[in-house]
Design brief:
Rossmann fold, 7-stranded parallel beta sheet, about 250 residues, alpha/beta
Length: about 250
């Protein structure tokens, strides 16, 4: 929670992947705190639904189509969000996916490229697009979703995804340190297994292995990640930047 009452009221967050999972949960949490929410997603209908829920909290919301793999789409979405609310205070990159599970020798060029386009290029595009705006305003917080997978490497099922998320951790660190004296903070979150649609293509056997590897013997929830995003963006977290925070129930699949 922030130190200052109503800290988020009137501020604006831009969320990629806002139509579902962690992005959707985070949109609802920020709306609860009075923030305007820009719901950006390639799934326009889903973004519209989340924006409607946000407005029920008597805060502003815009649903914007955004393909994070396309720099032009990202630039247009951020410009539309800025026009709607006059500025963007926070960027949360939630959009990401493994594409499909595959053993290392079964990862083809298309799967590798698509995984990096969504998870790495998407974060690069949004950060590079929003930073000039944040620099002009003299403040801003960026939070990116990474993964515990980068610690373990994803052997046997997701080396492509683990590698991409490792790049997110590194890129976040570099941006944070480059702009630390400009009023910009950048952080990443490396969750263990989270109970969202992301796990839809995970086999029951692998999902059970993940669950048993967590000392709490359960998957995390989207809300638990969203609350951490809120803390990271708040004035209670002003000395933290460049780090990745592991949220894994005491262990995590590593």
């Amino acid at each position: 929670m922030p130190k200052t009452p109503d800290y988020f009221r009137g501020k604006t967050i831009f969320i990629t992947g806002a139509a579902s999972g962690i992005g959707r949960a985070t949109a609802e949490i920020f709306a609860r705190e009075g923030a305007n929410v820009i719901c950006a997603d390639i799934n326009t209908a889903g973004a519209d639904e989340v924006a409607a829920l946000v407005r029920e909290s008597n805060t502003g919301a815009e649903a914007i189509h955004c393909d994070v793999t396309d720099r032009g789409s990202v630039d247009d979405a951020l410009a539309a969000g800025t026009d709607a609310f006059g500025g963007i205070d926070f960027l949360f990159n939630s959009a990401g996916a493994a594409g499909r599970r595959a053993k290392f020798l079964e990862i083809d060029a298309e799967l590798w490229r698509k995984t990096y386009a969504l998870n790495v290029d998407g974060v690069f595009h949004t950060m590079q697009s929003v930073l000039p705006h944040m620099l002009e305003r003299g403040h801003g917080v960026i939070v990116n979703i990474a993964s515990m997978a980068h610690r373990r490497g994803g052997p046997g099922h997701s080396v492509h995804y683990a590698s991409a998320k490792g790049a997110v951790v590194t890129m976040t660190m570099g941006v944070a340190r480059e702009f630390v004296d400009k009023g910009i903070r950048a952080l990443s979150i490396s969750p263990g297994p989270i109970d969202t649609a992301f796990q839809a293509d995970t086999s029951p056997e692998l999902l059970e292995r993940m669950r048993q590897d967590v000392p709490m013997k359960r998957l995390g929830t989207a809300d638990e990640i969203g609350e951490l995003v809120l803390f990271m963006c708040s004035d209670a977290c002003e000395f933290m930047t460049a780090d990745t925070v592991y949220v894994n129930g005491g262990g995590g699949f590593r």
